[in-house]
Amino acid sequence: MPKTKRRIVFHVDMDHFFTAVEEKVHPEYKGKPVIVGADPKQGKGRGVVSTCNYEARKYGVKSGMPISRAWKLCPHAVYLRPNYELYTQISKRIMTILKRYAESFEQFGIDEAFLDVSSKVANYGEARRLAEKIKKEILENEGLTCSIGVGPNKLVAKIASDTKKPDGLTVVDEENVQQFLSPLPVRKLLWVGRKTEQKLREIGVRTIGDLALCDPSLLVEKFGTIGIQYHLMARGIDKAPVGGSSGIIKSISRDHTFEEDTSDVEEIFRILDSLSQEIYEDLVKQSLYFKTITIKVRYEDFETHTHGKTLSFLTNRLEDIKKNARRLMLPYLEREKRIRLIGVKVSNIVSGAKQKTLT
Question: For 202-224, what is each residue's pLDDT tens digit?
């Protein structure tokens, strides 16, 4: 029987994309800590850090951090409001480059993408050369660097892209997946946050290798059915296909994981409004309208709920997003559990090019 053709997947991740674009447009920012996000208002601002460059990260600043805390850590940084129109224009050009090299393509946010290149290369040596070619083309065309992970599936490729940032290239062939994953901390796996990491430590699991050797029944007992997923990921197993390249936007979503699990309603609503604002800005800049809005809630024990509502009209108004997101969230604030994560998603999206503005 003929040997099954091996699968080769790229994960391309632009390095600190928003701040890198700002540094490209404003060379005077080079070498300075740059933070894109909410207005810090001299340490009293509300909202979060969208992204920051590596100079800012040296001070402990990171994405998703409250902007007030970022100010305390690095008050001398350059603080900028997001220029989504510019970021989107450059993102589209980069994604156009990437699509040319892919058998199948999946954009993952504004600055990341998966490429299945299985039919484009014969082996991992050719895959490395193709990745180098892509990095060079993006740098020459856009003046920006990216980090690329190469692996036999999306999971391994994504973890690989994060190991040598910035401007990195990490290739993990299928024979070396376990060797690559085993020494890494379990926190590197998708869905493993600080609390899960602590629970795993309680049963002696600190690395991905430890998790791969763990009894699956013990993981199910401690985490429920997601424990099986943890075990599969620790063994580098991921059969999820790389999505199609139609470019049709079906939904826009934003999530936020709280630094500490919370039941503070005011804080939850503040973040919910911030997520709604980001979605609104995405809709406006792309001339899109939606009919369905959905919220997501994940409690401290990882119990997760989603709840949606389909409106009777198309809209892209900020007021409609905020109002409905808050209404949908209310029932989940009545439970005696702290909340770990919240999210907002709009779907049933149509292009504004074919719609009259709702007044």
Answer: 999 999 999 999 999 999 888 87
Instruction: Report the topology of domain 251-354.
Output: Dna Ligase; domain 1 (3.30.1490)
- Mean residue pLDDT of the chain comes to 89
pLDDT at 231: 92
CATH architecture under which domain 182-234 falls: Orthogonal Bundle (1.10)
Architecture of the domain spanning 9-14+97-178: 2-Layer Sandwich (3.30)
Which of the residues 22, 106, 112, 278 is marked catalytic?
112
Q: What is the pLDDT of residue 195?
A: 78
- 221 in catalytic set: no
Q: How far apart are CA 235 and CA 179, in angstroms?
A: 10
pTM above 0.90, yes or no: no
- Single-letter amino acid code for the residue at 309: K
Q: Determine the Cα–Cα distance for residues 126 and 220; give it in Å rounded to an integer.
A: 40
SS3 call for 14: strand
End-to-end alpha carbon distance in the chain: 64
For residues 106-131, average pLDDT: 93
177 CB-near residues (< 8 Å, 6+ apart): 151, 152, 156, 236
**DSSP symbols for 65-127:** -BHHHHHHH-TTSEEE---HHHHHHHHHHHHHHHHHT-SEEEE-SSSEEEEE-TTT-SSHHHH
Q: Is the pLDDT of residue 163 over 90?
A: yes
Q: Where in the chain is the domain with CATH 3.30.70.270?
A: 9-14+97-178
The pLDDT value recorded for residue 70 is 94
DSSP 8-state class, residue 353: G
Please tell me the predicted confidence (pLDDT) of residue 316: 87
The CATH architecture to which 17-84 belongs is 3-Layer(aba) Sandwich (3.40)
Where do you find CATH 3.30.1490.100 in the chain?
251-354
